[in-house]
């Protein structure tokens, strides 16, 4: 089916996605009943994960359509984790980062009321056989992820759970995206180590697997994996089992040998090579990535546009488990 290409004749579409339909707010969890203010559609599940489920909802007073993320949290400790997520989101005002509208705390859960984003997961675009993904589309997607990361990193926030399921398309017909799920995100503290209970290991950086110090460039590794996936539909480190995948990551064992990469530009490959590096201090940061020719060279973009360089994403070998 036809869709808008990543660029017009004049060049790359670099306009940001529409902002949330409300101004940035500083939110704290209120002890009120959410049902007194919102109508939640419990039948319509927009997404889910280890935390619980996300439902479409409408604020009665304003008529705004929003998304209610219901996070199970009984103990004080579980509630603190969700309050950290709220705290992190209070720092992030950017069109490529999903915005927080309100939060409600009850005995068994905390519900985050979020900006509604209706275009589905970026991952579904990668595996959709009816959607022709061009390399220039990948440029447009990755640029926006970098823009979001640049803002997060400027605000000292690490996302630490960047993967295609956590990137939502704004609509089915444009290439605008927003990064979601700040459940593992945190304010950067030098020399803080991170222990994660990971479900899908394909996106983990070596320093996370090694329980070593994490940093801004931990997110940049994940960006490298996502770029590789967008361009090929393949996972760079996927092994026969999780153990093998983890070993591939630690050994930084990956390549461009698959036939999916025959049309891929050298600039795209160079971009990935500068991110999938074991030593995090050698990886490009978000600002440097935005200046990389693959994301910034308009002559290259024009060439990709006229050559209609396609991503080979028909044979997706790395369908992640839906629950992480
Ligand atoms: C909110 O709006 C819905 C739909 O109009 C209505 O059924 C519900 O009673 C309202 N709730 C409150 C608390 O006003
Ligand atoms: C692709 O299009 C066909 C025919 O319209 C449809 O049956 C199929 O479900 C579509 N596939 C996806 C992944 O949407
Ligand atoms: C995991 O991989 C390591 C190194 O290759 C190997 O020694 C170990 O036996 C493997 N463990 C399992 C459970 O497969
Ligand atoms: C990573 O690179 C930095 C800068 O070159 C160096 O100081 C550091 O020792 C390296 N770390 C590891 C684990 O090799």
Automatic annotation (TrEMBL):
PROSITE patterns: PROTEIN_KINASE_ATP (PS00107), PROTEIN_KINASE_DOM (PS50011), PROTEIN_KINASE_ST (PS00108). It comes from the Eukaryota. InterPro entries: Kinase-like_dom_sf (IPR011009), Prot_kinase_dom (IPR000719), Protein_kinase_ATP_BS (IPR017441), Ser/Thr_kinase_AS (IPR008271). ATP binds at residue 69. Keywords: ATP-binding, Kinase, Nucleotide-binding, Serine/threonine-protein kinase, Transferase. It holds the Pfam family Pkinase. SMART domains: S_TKc. GO terms for molecular function: ATP binding; protein serine/threonine kinase activity. Coiled coil: none annotated. Residues 40-295 form the Protein kinase domain. Belongs to the protein kinase superfamily. CAMK Ser/Thr protein kinase family. This is Protein kinase domain-containing protein. It comes from Amphiprion ocellaris (Clown anemonefish).
């Amino acid at each position: 089916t036809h869709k808008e290409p990543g660029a017009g004749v004049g060049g790359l579409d670099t306009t940001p996605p529409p902002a949330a339909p409300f101004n940035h707010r500083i939110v704290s969890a209120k002890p009120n009943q959410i049902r007194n203010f919102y109508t939640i559609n419990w039948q319509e599940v927009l997404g889910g994960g280890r935390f619980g489920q996300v439902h479409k909802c409408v604020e009665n007073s304003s008529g705004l359509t929003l998304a209610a993320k219901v996070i199970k949290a009984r103990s004080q400790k579980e509630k603190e984790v969700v309050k950290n997520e709220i705290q992190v989101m209070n720092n992030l005002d950017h069109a490529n980062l999903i915005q927080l509208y309100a939060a409600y705390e009850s005995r068994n859960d905390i519900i985050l009321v979020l900006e509604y984003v209706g275009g589905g997961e970026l991952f579904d675009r990668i595996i959709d056989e009816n959607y022709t993904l061009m390399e220039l589309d990948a440029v447009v997607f990755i640029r926006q992820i970098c823009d979001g990361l640049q803002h997060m990193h400027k605000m000292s926030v690490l996302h630490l759970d960047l993967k295609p399921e956590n990137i939502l398309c704004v609509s089915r017909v444009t290439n605008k995206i927003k990064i979601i799920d700040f459940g593992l995100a945190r304010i950067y503290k030098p020399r803080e180590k991170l222990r994660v209970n990971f479900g899908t290991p394909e996106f983990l950086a070596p320093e996370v697997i090694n329980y070593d110090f994490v940093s801004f460039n931990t997110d940049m590794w994940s960006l490298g994996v996502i770029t590789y996936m967008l361009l090929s539909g393949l996972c760079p480190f996927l092994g026969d089992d999780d153990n093998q995948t983890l070993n591939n990551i630690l050994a930084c064992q990956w390549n461009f040998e698959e036939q999916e990469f025959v049309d891929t530009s050298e600039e795209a490959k160079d971009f990935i090579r500068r991110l999938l590096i074991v030593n995090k201090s050698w990886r490009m940061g978000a600002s440097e990535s935005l200046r990389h020719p693959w994301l910034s060279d308009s002559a290259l973009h024009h060439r990709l546009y006229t050559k209609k360089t396609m991503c080979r994403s028909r044979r997706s070998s790395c369908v992640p488990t839906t629950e992480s």
